[in-house]
Amino acid sequence: MKPFRYDRATSPAAAVAAVAADPQASYLAGGTNLVDHLRLGLTEPGLLVDVGGLPLHEIEELPDGGLRIGAGVANSDLAADRRVRERYPVLSVALLSGASGQLRNLATTGGNLLQRTRCGYFQDVTEPCNKRAPGSGCAALGGWNRYHAILGASSHCIAVHPSDLAVALTALDARVRVLGVDGERAIPIDDFYRLPGDEPQRDTVLEHGDLITAVDLPPLPVARNSGYRKVRDRASYAFALVSVAAAIRIEDGTVADVRIALGGVAHRPWRAHTAEQALHGAPSTVEGYAAAAARELSAADPLPGNAFKVPLARSVLTSVLTQLAEEAR
Amino acid sequence: METQIGLRVDGTRHTVRIDTRETLLDVLRERLGNTSPKKGCDHGQCGACTVLLDGRRVTTCLALAVSHDGAELTTAAGLASGAQLHPVQQAFVTHDAFQCGYCTPGQVCSAVGMLDEASRGWPSACTEPGELVRLSDAEIAERMSGNLCRCGAYVNIVAAIRQAAVDADAPDTP
Ligand SMILES: Cc1cc2nc3c(=O)[nH]c(=O)nc-3n(C[C@H](O)[C@H](O)[C@H](O)COP(=O)(O)OP(=O)(O)OC[C@H]3O[C@@H](n4cnc5c(N)ncnc54)[C@H](O)[C@@H]3O)c2cc1C
Ligand code: SF4
Ligand code: FES
Ligand code: FES
């Protein structure tokens, strides 16, 4: 690990100023992803600005009936929060499906959203990887790509985003609050993450120095009937092969409102707009859910190593929607 | 970069000079000589380095010591009161919940933290939304999934924790 300087930020603005002024600086939160990367030599910052002491640890009610989640709230505290469990169960279950109890006690909202891909070649400095070393190639394309993308990938990168939290937040239309050198802005989560295109080194639209201060959840009655299902190679403590976050409201046997996001399938959490559009106002039937899932997955372009994900995603999506629709009755 | 931090470990205060690159695990083992937390993977993947940090269970191999200046740590070595083992430690002995013992200090600290979480009504991924927390074997396995045991002592680990939970009369209300 390369030596680095350490600085404890005293205010969000001071943190932004410190990181923005130094191209080699990086924020540090729980460290559960960053410290791993320092050790693996994937990143070599000269300065770590610790945001752990900033007053960003609260979950607050918003005047419109939504919730504001501070960037420093631990994943475990967020998952256990009564309001989250009642109003946005998908969010609690998604968090609890990720990592382990020990890691969730350290991991923060902001760090979770900005964790980087678990692509094995990205994590191995001896391999070509356009995300880590732009222009070096992509070892996963002709390599081991069981965990990789089936939607929205490019010839430059086929990695998937590993966060479960981000998938739930995508289904919930959350907004990421960001403080930059030019002030604060709110970015709809659907615009926050990027597809790889020819710049896979950029996971999000953030610029160097941008600090996540909070995530806002809109008031969303449909989210009371929501859930998260994660399929993986072992029952717990593993990243997703495919995951589904969904919320649905049924009125008089038809779909009145539905929100769907898929994880483990793309470079970003995949909002299933196609399936949602197919379902709005449609009768609530298993056949309808299966057809909508098939339409969403018709855009899939898998590789031999991950072709199994297409039927898997289709079935999991169908099953989650069917189950939530039953519970909505 | 060299710097100085304060830590309270198993009830004793320490002031230590550290390099900013050192993790809590390295400081505990290499600077303070407390080898009860183990280095299994150094990547957050095994749980052998688990201790209680300000009362909450955490993996120490990915936590930079410099960012935990002033913290209170309890390692497995600090759980007993005198000759009296902590009930979770005793339950591990009673149920023969280990073989080589390498994962055990992490398992024990994790179980202590986990039982506290459950007593506060924290759900797990296998708690039905809206349900109360009842520590079934499935719940214990899910909540302890961050601790791997290379010897595969899982069956007895679950039994030990189940007993410790009953003995502590872990409230099953949130
Ligand atoms: C063994 C293991 C298993 C895991 N399994 C899962 C899983 O199944 N599902 C899952 O979703 N995750 C999983 N994780 C990942 C874990 O959720 C992340 O490591 C964690 O959420 C990162 O949060 P942190 O606070 O520790 O971030 P850090 O490691 O401190 O930071 C991560 C990145 O975010 C940046 N950052 C942090 N806070 C801010 C901020 N406020 N503003 C701007 N930038 C910021 C940092 O600069 C860094 O680049 C796993 C991790 C491990 C080690
Ligand atoms: S898939 Fe992306 S992250 Fe993985 S090796 Fe290719 S470029 Fe790198
Ligand atoms: S050594 Fe920390 S989790 Fe393995
Ligand atoms: S007892 Fe040997 S690793 Fe668990």
UniProtKB/TrEMBL annotation, chain A:
Keyword Oxidoreductase attached: yes
Domain FAD-binding PCMH-type: 1-222
Keyword Oxidoreductase among record annotations: yes
Keywords assigned by UniProt, alphabetized: Oxidoreductase
InterPro entries in alphabetical order: CO_DH_flav_C, CO_DH_flav_C_dom_sf, Diverse_Substr_Oxidored, FAD-bd_PCMH, FAD-bd_PCMH-like_sf, FAD-bd_PCMH_sub1, FAD-bd_PCMH_sub2, Mopterin_DH_FAD-bd
GO molecular function: FAD binding; oxidoreductase activity
Superkingdom of origin: Bacteria
SMART domains: CO_deh_flav_C
UniProt name for this protein: FAD-binding molybdopterin dehydrogenase
Species: Actinocatenispora comari
TrEMBL record, chain B:
Signal sequence, renumbered to the chain: none
Origin species: Actinocatenispora comari
Keywords (A to Z) from UniProt: 2Fe-2S, Iron, Iron-sulfur, Metal-binding, Oxidoreductase
Pathway in which this enzyme or protein is active: Alkaloid degradation; nicotine degradation
A molecular-function term among this protein's GO annotations: metal ion binding
Coiled-coil parts of chain: none
Pfam families attached to this UniProt entry: Fer2, Fer2_2
Domain 2Fe-2S ferredoxin-type: 3-79
Official protein name in the record: Oxidoreductase
SUPFAM superfamilies the UniProt entry points to: 2Fe-2S ferredoxin-like, CO dehydrogenase ISP C-domain like
Source organism phylogeny: Bacteria, Bacillati, Actinomycetota, Actinomycetes, Micromonosporales
Transmembrane segments: none
Top-rank taxon, per record: Bacteria
